[in-house]
Amino acid sequence: MERQRRKADIEKGLKFIQSTLPLKQEEYEAFLLKLVQNLFAEGNDLFREKDPKQALVQYMEALNVADYAASDQVSLPRELLCKLRVNRAACYFTMGMYEKALEDSEKALSLDGENIRALFRKARALNELGHHKEAYECSSRCSLALPHDESVTQLGQELAQKLGLRVRKAYKRPQELETFSLLSNGTAASMADQVGRGQNSGPASSPPETTSWGSSVVRALNSLSGV
C-alpha cells in the first residue's frame, strides 16, 4: 500500500515539474526533495528485487531532478546525492557497465571522500577494467576501515594475487585484550582519580579494604597498559 502511494506520488511529481505552475519557495524546495527521496527509495526496492535496470531508471530520474533543482537554485543534501551516485554505480556494475560504475563512484567520492561504499565500488570497477594497482590502493583503504568485512577482504586478496603480493590472513586480537585495553585507556584513570579522592577527602568511616582493593586494581591495569 505504501509503495503504491509512493509510485503515485512519483508520477504526480514528475508531471508537476514538467509544468510551469507556481509554488511558494519553501513548498517548492520541500516538493523537490520529497520527489528525489521517493525515486531513491523506489530504486532501492527495485534493486533489492534484483531488477537493476528498473532501479537504474529511478536513480537516473532522481539525479536528473536534482540537476533540474540545482539549475533552479535549489540545493539538495549532499548525502542524498552521494547515495544516489553510489547506488547507481552498483546498478551499472551489475549490468557490466564498469566505466559508468567507475564514473559514478568517483563523483560520489567528490561529494564524500570518506564514503567506503563509493570507494569499494570504485575498487571493483577498476579491477574489472584491469587497473589492478589503483584498485588495490582503493581496496586497501577499505580494508583499513572495514578489516573484518568478507567482501572487502576477498577483493583485497584477489587483487594482491594479481599483483604478485603475498596474501596473508589478518591478525585477530583476543577479546580479553580488547577489554583490558578499554579499561586501561579510560577506566584506570577514572578509578585512580576516584581512589585518590577517597584517600584524601573521603569520610573517615570508609572501609579501608575498599581503598586497598581500588589501589590494587589501578596498579594491575597500569601494569597492563605499560604506565
Q: Would you kindly provide a brief summary of this structure?
A:
It is found in: Nucleus. The protein has helices at 2-17, 25-48, 52-71, 78-94, 98-111, 116-128, 132-145, 150-162, 175-201, 208-224. By secondary structure, the protein is mainly α.
Fold topology:
Elements: H1 2-17, H2 25-48, H3 52-71, H4 78-94, H5 98-111, H6 116-128, H7 132-145, H8 150-162, H9 175-201, H10 208-224
3D structure, described in words:
By secondary structure, the protein is mainly alpha-helical. Among the domains are: about 1-75; about 100-165, Serine Threonine Protein Phosphatase 5, Tetratricopeptide repeat (Alpha Horseshoe). It has ten helices and no strands. α4 (about 80-95) packs parallel to α6. The radius of gyration is 27 Å and the shape is elongated.
